[in-house]
Design brief:
heterodimer, A: mainly alpha, Cytochrome Bc1 Complex, Chain D, domain 2, two-stranded antiparallel ribbon, 5 helices, about 35% helix, B: mainly alpha, about 0% strand
């Protein structure tokens, strides 16, 4: 090889091919797919909660993509049906996730509709799941001597709140719980129109 | 979109590409001249070792293994070596700056990495502060490696090798210096943003796109001297290392730009793009930089050209063609178009071709020279890294198969695999090259050879413990997750002992980096014994008689 132009042209053609296949074609095929019927857009609070999910890196341990029945028993765990592209129509950044240090959260809103459970679990996961290795998020809560007006006090199992104090949820974690509860994709998937 | 048509056309393209390759070989269009492999040597230099990282006796023993070479250097050789010294001198301060940054990011990344690892089995440790939560400190670790350590070391090495390969001093080094300064400023603000919770939210692409503009400017400036030097080159043949480095430097900006355009990507398509980037930044940036390093230093140290230059050609074009399309295997079983997954699996398996080409080549070049590993610190790191490239690539190909992926996807097994590639291969190779380069650019020898050995063994045992424990833990995790009769928590608890094992391996790796950085500091500050003359281009390699 004596000609750098030929070399770089060859190299860039190769990358161009890969980019067409993995970026451009999916862009044409699934980017602007219509939302699946039954999927609701996020409310403002849910969207703020989603930003908390992103900022605190929940995606590095939790996926949002149950696998199909013929591939893995995800549905049997109550994680739900296999998703279709239309289920993510409102999602950016995408949070499909590629790690399951913790369980899939595609339908966590349907599995755990309780505010108390979510708030308590985010404050101290081991209060509800003794063997959990999820970190608590104490910085999303205030510890107060006494609840003030309008405070959302977290109802923890006995022994988990600091003695003589109350644990109050900050707005961030209230939003986060709203987002988690919005993760409910129990409506039927309608096959996207085959092309 | 017709799935069958896409797969058929991808397959047809691959076969046509292969046929074209074979045809060009037959027609001599591609450089079949095996002399190409000798372009890294000066006239009359073949059979002479070059190993500035070793002590005087190491170098003598290394040279003895390659046959005697005590004859006085011919005048042509002396002239070329002077030119090479000039080429080295032209990059010295610049490469030194890149390496200082690389050391700093290596230590930052190590601290963040070991913290994340411990947090996975001690979840209540250090969780009072948002920036120390697992989701952020893990991300800081990844970004400090991906945009700090790996590019600073890799680009520094590339800037050092390039003038040697083109036999001309570096042109426009000031641009690269400014570029590196911008790049590091961008990384500092990027890591600060992630710690503060400002993030774009995509794995490998967390740094906010506004800061990414600085990376683009910095990266482009680093590329300027490479292009300028290329146009001033005094050799007609471009050595295989130049192909890898040249293409890597053009590939990365395209990847980074396409991936970071705000508002362009969404939903499932964004996931596909995410892994196109995530895998290609490994395969088309770090991997080619590290392979270029192996292809230069391995033959250079032992004074013997790459055995089969044609194989290195096949390896390069194979990588360029297949690697770009493998990213989809990160989404097997996901809601992405099926044809994309199948394509990525097929191309993942095809990667075995370039990997085999590299492996055979490295083995043949080293064959009969294994003794050299004992006396050359550079070679020891680089040869180990080369073996890890083969292992991690073959593992990666098989991991893409649906049957294996069903178990390993979503588990720590993937994390172990990623570390085998980016640490076992890329980082080890960079370590080796830095041991070679630092004495050349500082004109000082490494003061404590025993610290090099300590670094090597701590890092090697560390990554071995890391990889083995986490692979087993990840596999068991995946098997438990596939068993519907077991509650999910069982897939968590089964990993605990292995997560602890990973922390031990990680701690050894961190320790090895501290040793490496301290040794570098000692060299720079001129501490420690002054063992001998700086390892310059004195070709009077001490003979046994002279030493005794």
């Amino acid at each position: 090889m004596k000609n750098e132009l030929k070399l770089l042209t060859g190299g860039m053609v190769m990358l161009g091919l890969a980019t067409s296949l993995l970026v451009v074609l999916p862009y044409m095929q699934v980017r602007d797919v219509a939302p699946t019927e039954g999927l609701k857009p996020y409310t403002a609070a849910e969207w703020r909660g989603r930003e908390q999910y992103v900022q605190n890196g929940c995606v590095y341990c939790h996926s949002q993509q149950p696998r199909a029945k013929n591939f893995a028993p995800d549905a049997a765990r109550g994680w739900g049906r296999a998703p279709v592209a239309g289920d993510y129509a409102y999602d950016t950044p995408q949070l499909l996730g590629t790690m399951r240090t913790g369980p899939d959260l595609f339908n966590i809103g349907a599995r755990q509709p309780s505010d108390d459970w979510h708030l308590g679990h985010l404050y101290q996961p081991r209060a509800y799941v003794p063997e959990s290795i999820m970190p608590g998020y104490p910085y999303l809560f205030d510890i107060k001597d006494k609840a003030e007006k309008g405070d959302q006090v977290v109802n923890l199992p006995p022994g988990y709140a600091p003695a003589g104090k109350v644990v109050v949820a900050k707005q961030e974690v209230l939003d986060l719980v709203k987002y988690l509860k919005s993760l409910d994709h129990t409506y039927p998937a309608i096959k996207p129109q085959a092309k | 979109m017709n799935t069958v048509a896409i797969l058929l056309s991808a397959f047809t393209l691959s076969v046509i590409a292969l046929l074209v390759f074979i045809w060009t070989q037959g027609r001599g269009l591609l450089d079949k001249d095996p002399d190409g492999a000798k372009v890294i040597f000066a006239e009359g230099e073949l059979g002479r070792i070059e190993e500035p990282a070793g002590s005087g006796s190491d170098r003598r023993l290394l040279q003895e293994g390659q046959g005697p070479s005590n004859a006085a250097a011919p005048p042509a050789l002396t002239r070329e070596l002077q030119e090479r010294a000039a080429a080295d001198a032209s990059t010295g301060p610049l490469v030194f700056f890149f390496f200082c940054c690389a050391f700093a990011w290596l230590l930052v990344a190590s601290a963040a990495g070991i913290t994340s690892s411990i947090k996975l089995h001690e979840p209540d440790w250090l969780n009072q502060y948002a920036w120390l939560t697992f989701g952020r400190i893990r991300t800081l670790h990844l970004n400090a490696v991906a945009y700090g350590w790996a590019p600073m070391a890799g680009l520094g090495i590339a800037l050092f090798i390039l003038p040697r390969l083109l036999k001309t001093p570096l042109v426009g080094g000031k641009f690269a210096l400014l570029g590196a300064a911008l790049w590091n400023a961008a990384l500092i603000s990027g890591l600060g943003s992630i710690a503060a919770g400002i993030t774009d939210g995509l794995e490998w692409l967390e740094i906010p796109w506004q800061i990414d503009l600085l990376f683009v400017a910095g990266g482009a400036l680093v590329g300027v001297p490479l292009v300028l030097t290329l146009t001033q080159r005094k050799v007609s043949h471009l050595y295989v290392s130049v192909w890898y480095m040249g293409c890597a430097l053009f590939w990365f900006p395209v990847l980074f730009l396409v991936a970071n355009i705000p508002g362009l990507h969404k939903g499932v398509q964004q996931a596909a793009m995410n892994w196109w980037f995530g895998h290609n930044v490994l395969g088309l940036f770090y991997t080619p930089l590290a392979l270029a390093t192996v292809y230069y230093f391995l033959p250079k140290v032992i004074g013997r050209p790459v055995q089969s230059y044609n194989l290195s050609l096949l390896g390069f074009w194979g990588l360029a063609f297949f690697y770009g399309q493998v990213g989809g295997h990160h989404l097997i079983g996901g809601p992405v178009p099926g044809w994309m997954i199948t394509l990525s699996i097929v191309q993942s398996m095809m990667m075995i071709i370039p990997v085999a080409a590299f492996t055979v080549n490295q083995y043949q070049t080293l064959k009969g020279n294994m003794g050299a590993l004992r006396y050359s610190p550079t070679l020891r790191f680089i040869a180990l890294g080369g073996i890890m490239y083969t292992l991690s690539s073959v593992q990666g190909s098989f991991e893409a198969l649906r049957s294996i992926n069903a178990i390993t996807h979503f588990t720590h097994f993937t994390v172990a695999h990623a570390h085998l590639g980016l640490y076992g291969f890329v980082t080890m190779v960079f370590f080796g090259a830095m041991y070679f380069i630092v004495p050349r650019i500082t004109r000082r020898e490494w003061p404590y050879p025993s610290l090099i050995a300590a670094h090597f063994w701590l890092a090697t045992i560390g990554i071995a413990v890391y990889f083995v424990t986490l692979s087993i833990g990840g596999w068991l995790q995946g098997v438990a997750m596939l068993d519907a009769a077991k509650p999910f928590m069982e897939s968590v608890t089964v990993t605990l002992p292995y997560l602890k094992g990973r922390s031990i391996g990680g701690a050894l790796m961190v320790l090895s980096h501290i040793v490496f950085a301290a040794h570098f500091a000692a060299l720079v500050l001129n501490l420690g014994p002054n063992r001998s003359q700086p390892a310059l281009f004195s070709w009077t390699i001490p003979t046994r008689r002279a030493v005794e």
